[in-house]
Amino acid sequence: MAGREVTIASSLSNFREKLQQRKYPIILLGDGGDDKKVRESIIGIRALPEIWGARFILIVEKYDADLLELAASLNFRDLIPLNLPEDEWVFRIGYSSAGRERPFPLPTGQITLKSIAKLDLPARLIWMSPTRMCIETEIFPAVGSRLAVVGNLARELRVPHILFVVEGVKHEQLKYRFSTAVVGRWRVEPAFQAHIEAVLKGLRNKAPSAGHRVYIAMKDKVRKHFLADYFEGQLGAEVSIALFVKSIGYEPKFFTPDIIFMDADLCVENGYFSQMLAVVSKELPIIIVDDGIHAEKIRRVGPEHHLIFMSELTTEVLDALAGEYLSEPSVKKALDEDAFYFEKSSDESFAMVSCPARLSKIHPFAVEVSCPYKVKRFALAHLKSPLLQKILGRDLWIKVTGTRPAVSPDDPSFPERLEGILADIEIPKREALGQALGDWIHKHLTSYQFDPHKTESSVFEQEIEEASHHAALEELLKAQAGEEGKELEIRPVGEAGPKLVPPFIAPVPSSEEEEQEPIPIRRPIPQPFSERLVAALTSDSFKKFLIFLVISLGLLILLTLTIPYLAQHYEKSGGVYSEQLERFKEIEREKREKGNQTP
To answer: How far apart are the C-alpha atoms of 384 and 394, rounded to whole Å?
Structure first.
């Protein structure tokens, strides 16, 4: 990549060694090698505090469904196939690793359709109590929205999905760098309460205590790693290290630390320190390592903040600071009394927010999806569609490039339009999708031409095998859009997995419930020639033609009679003038002759 310094690491340990020398804002991880080792490396690298704010991209070669879901759940920016053309591959990396959201021009020639689909957005479970839950995700639901959470915990509870009503949305104390933390209440029917309590008890027994949060912004590498090892290794705290100098201005707002450690140089060199003070609590202890030169200048920047100046940091000093300021973690105050945290590495913490959707446009490169919620740009979403399953044999991940409200949605359950590129589709699959869509359009048009009684939907349904699980998503939709105040109801389904639904493409009807009846073609019955002749002679048009013909003939006769008369009259009236002219010419000639004879 032009303009980029590239460092290659052969293993997790080798990567840790390289991190001692410098930080890397963009991390590309490949999925080659042993599946278990690849999974461990991805989890291990993603958990390193030195690159907590880095942008991770998975380079896809094996298309392992579990590995792709793991990367998306760890908040990777993109899933990019290895075999893409070089220019597209470089562009995708640049777009997905950009610091700011950028517009992405979608290709033209998309096919408009209306196909039932399912959208799963990665989420992580933060904490849980018998009645309430907190998750991090990439959607922006309104208070009162009903979300469906699927994943390992739902399977352990023996339910198809966990429903909970959104009580609040916040953008602080984020643990996994997702955009939103959603707090909601959940429940199940009393008949299954005993099993639920047993599962929650097991999770509570292995749950970690509410950890402290430490934010470090240091230039000195030795001091930085000394602080990280102390708080993460000895106290079990969550540590985040500033990746860039400019990230100091905004990262503490979302990470919400209990204590901050900074170099004095970073407080005076730019305006990021004052930006940070504007988004953190005034009571938050900020430890500034200073030799006495910048103390007064820094105090003038934040006179109301709790600034503590230290000339040196030792283990004894850190012990004293921890005892003074970290006796009670701030994150614990947000928990219910009987709530417990999920471990970062626990399988139960990985989840998906699942919602019904409609595949409204498709192209071999991109899609448009109608969905219930606004989704953050740059997010990854798993699109499950019978259309894609039929053509490609698997579902696809999409990289969200933008969302917008629908101008006039056909169904109020889907007020948002999500645009995105097909993230993990390799070149052969993309070509197969393009060929299948082209073949389908050709067959649809020719079928409609020769058999007008076939509707669009019936032609398409012949191309897609009927799925027997339509009711699953419809039930999910009804549950999420249930009546106000209605209690949540979750029924166990044993080991049944997620169910797909058949597509439906019908741009003419306004909703799926409307059916378009074929319009019969009525051909007129031929009449006898005599009847048709009489009808023609007595028609208004024929009468008008006769009147025009009579008038035309009368004008022709009149002109034939008057033109000779007028010609004769004008000939006689001009004869007198002709004789006078001849006489005048003769007189003039005689005068010239006499003049010539005079000597």
So the answer is: 8
> Which of 345-359, 415-429, 451-465, 492-506 shows the lowest per-residue confidence on average (mean pLDDT)?
492-506
Between 146 and 486, the higher pLDDT residue: 146
Q: Which of 197, 170, 192, 195 is nearest to 181 (CA)?
A: 170
Q: Which helix H or strand E contains 422, and what residues bound it?
A: strand 416-422
Tokens of 438: 């082209």
Q: How many residues does the chain have?
A: 599
Strand partners, 183: 134, 168
**Which are the contacts of 109, defined by CB distance < 8 A and separation ≥ 6?**
363
**594 class by beta-carbon count within 10 Å (0-12 exposed, 13-18 middle, 19+ buried):** exposed
Among candidate residues 111, 138, 56, the one with its CA nearest the CA of residue 365: 111
404 token code pair: 């917008």
Residue 461 has pLDDT above 50, yes or no: no
The encoded tokens of residue 584 equal 């005048």
Nearest in space to 248 (alpha carbons), one of 227, 276, 270: 276
Q: What is the DSSP letter of 377?
A: T
Q: Please, which pLDDT band fits residue 284 given cuts at 50, 70 and 90? A: very high
Question: Which one of 17-21, 170-174, 558-562, 566-570 scores highest in mean pLDDT?
Answer: 170-174
Give the tens place of pLDDT for each residue, 331-366. 655 567 788 888 888 889 999 999 899 998 999 999
Of residues 467 and 369, the one with the higher pLDDT is 369
Token reading at 45: 């690298």
pLDDT at 501 exceeding the cut of 80: no
What is the model's pLDDT at position 459? 38
Q: Strand 259-263 vs strand 286-289: parallel, antiparallel, or unpaired?
A: parallel
Q: What residues contact 353, with CB distance under 8 A and at least 6 apart?
A: 120, 121, 123, 135, 137, 139, 147, 148, 149
Under 8 Å CB-to-CB from 252, ≥6 apart: which residues?
Answer: 215, 260, 276, 279, 280
- Which residues are within 8 A (CB) of 419 and not within 5 positions of it... i.e. 6 or more apart? 104, 106, 366, 367, 368, 369, 400, 401, 402, 403, 404
Give the Cα separation of 455 and 567 in Å (integer): 75
The order of strands in the sheet holding 259-263 is 238-241, 213-217, 259-263, 286-289, 307-310
CB atoms within 10 A of CB 411: 17
Report whether 44 contacts 12 (CB < 8 A). Answer: yes
Single-letter amino acid code for the residue at 181 = A
The letter for the amino acid at 54 is A
Tell me the pTM. 0.70
Least Cα distance to 82 among 573, 425, 474, 463 occurs for 425
Identify the CA nearest to 73 among candidates 433, 296, 280, 342: 342
The model's confidence at residue 34, banded by pLDDT at 50, 70 and 90, is confident
Q: Which of 175-189, 340-354, 439-453 has the highest mean pLDDT?
A: 340-354
